[in-house]
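In this supplementary section we document a worked example of the pipeline. Step one takes a protein sequence of length 298 as its only input; no multiple sequence alignment statistics are reported here. Step two produces a three-dimensional model, which step three serialises into structure tokens for compact storage. The input and output of this example are shown verbatim.
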Amino acid sequence: MAVRFEVDDQIPPPREFQRSAKSHHLRRINMKTPRGWLLIYSLLGFAVSAGIAYHAIRDQNMVNLLLSAGFLLLAILLWYQTRWALLANSLLGLFVILLGVYVYWDVGRLGMLIGGGCILASYWPFREELEKQTDAERTHHRDDDASSHGPGLCIALLRDGWKPYRFPHSNVVVAVPHDFVAAFDDDGVLLGTLDGRSQNFSATLHANEEFHADPAVAYDFLDDLAEKSNVEPTDKGTYRYFKDPNLTGDEQLQYTFYVIAIPGSVVVVSIASTPGRERPDPLARIENAIPDIVGELA
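The serialised model returned by step three reads:
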């Protein structure tokens, strides 16, 4: 059986952090400057907005001022290559069409009505350019990650005798040292113990349909959790992970949580040891190997 530890192109500690990832998918943006037609569309939107704003201020026309704001919002959303631009484009087109209907009924001119139709028709080229540049950016990101960090780290763990545990109904695995006792419970959580009584380690897989439809949504989900914890996540190859600064536990055991994301899945790892003492081996080895303990079956 071949094992591939993903370093690929990222819920939460306990279950109370779970939530839908759909909103993260919708508000994901690209911070890089747009290229090609998308750049032209954005600059044209800024220019049109400025022109309409000039006449709106000069004539004190509130309707034109609203039009200017609409074009400005559309240009900004296109610039950041977010799919909210498609919604803004549709709403702006409908607004201009409604104005066009009024103008045609009032003075018989078709100009604004035709303009609104053109704005609506631009939905398809906008969508095509957004998808093209977003897909190109993801491919470039994967290529960079593959060249900077590959599957060798996990192979090194396996050669050292680490044992991979596969989550039920999933290709995701977690590796732990061979001398560490671990097993899955009825809920599919991997539990480990040092003494046969205490729960010193756990690994919980979080995945849903949103993650499978767009594996990058898992990164967004992790980013949101890291932001709530006031932590900057770390990128290593295609891993994204962070250590939760909030410790839980009691006098016997203190729990530290790590949130680790790979494309399409997020694994939450907890490590528990006696407060005020050094991590016992093999817990220290597990902690030092994060995030490479998480991977996928080839």
